# Entry
Amino acid sequence: MIKIGVCGFGTVGQSFVDHVLAYQDKIIENCGREICISIIADRSIEKKKFKSESIQFTSDILSVNNSDCDVIVELIGGTDIAYDLVKSAILKKKSVITANKALIAEKGDELLALSKENNTYIGYEASVAGAIPIINTLKHNMLNESIISLSGIINGTCNYILDQMSSERKGFKEALNSAQELGYAEADPTFDIGGFDAAHKISILSMIAFEIPSPYENIHIEGIESIDSMDIDYANELGYKIKHIATARSNNSLIECKVHPALINKKNILSKIDGVMNAVRTVGDKFGTSLLYGHGAGGAATASAVVSNIIDYCIHVDRNVKNISNSIAVHRKDLVTIEDTFNQYYLRMFANDVPGVMANITSTLAKHKISIEAVTQHEPLENEKLIPIVMITNSVVFKDMLSAIKKIESMDNIVGKVNLIRVFNDD
Ligand code: HSE
# Structure
């Protein structure tokens, strides 16, 4: 009998228990192992409605490690108590399944190595993109070749907000309020809209795909706070949608990993990932391109990913090679510094409507070897004298773009800052 201890009994914890109880017979039949939930721990367990005669309840989370559970399912989140719980569980030779992206992205190098040393299983399918089986796919189906790049829309909150700004013509604040009302965004939405959630997730995927230590501390992170409705409209006119995207790419001995808003050509399938949906595109040297699409969050979707790890654990435990699924960093690859990365850019600026202003901008860009692929000059906004100028450049190194923008912003007839957004290029 495999005994499971569930730590954290919020939305995902409750969905997980419901899922296991509903599918217990099927899991047992397919894995050839009896499983049961023997204990549930939550700091405010007294307030939770679920009661069962066969399951023990406690508000002392760390005490679960003193029980006879074989597997700890960590659904608490964060890196404080969750870290203490998982570390001590592994040291007690217990296996761990977690949905905690912060834990794996920030403490995963240590915990995965510890798990390997102790021959315990550690599963974290639910930590990235909810129900999309991207971790299992990378670890198993795609293990036999080299991954070239990963790109994903992996934060549902950002995707929902940008989609509402585009399809419903809402302003940023209104779209954020609606994400909060629907329970997609937290009361403090910084973690999602600031890009940190997506950064955790792409770090975890990079660890597996490129067999490197977590790059989280060093990756370039931009959120969606600077996206204005006018950028959505101008991008649309030029044939693009704006999405929040996370990318990672292996260039010989270097890894490029970044999280930022981007213009995506409407012909690209990633531009069609709308609402709170997630998608991850993987390019391998043999399988070519693959796209996985699905629900990236929510109790049932996340719980389903946790259950997939329970099944994986049951299969491994019979072989007594519990850590076969661990991805331990075997390569020490440096990250490309953001200033050295290449991209096409969307630039939007305001100028006084005087002769020569456009010529000054284009000659400054030319001096930095930046050419313009598209340019539009719009009517002044209502009640404003300034004209908006929008450009798409060719692919240039970021440091040259930064230095050109500094020059443009210092021109007499340019007012305010240049808004710069990368253009996603997936070749
Ligand atoms: N807050 C995340 C999102 C879901 O908006 O995608 C959990 O990872």
About this structure: DSSP finds twelve helices and 18 strands in the chain. The two ends are 49 Å apart (CA to CA).
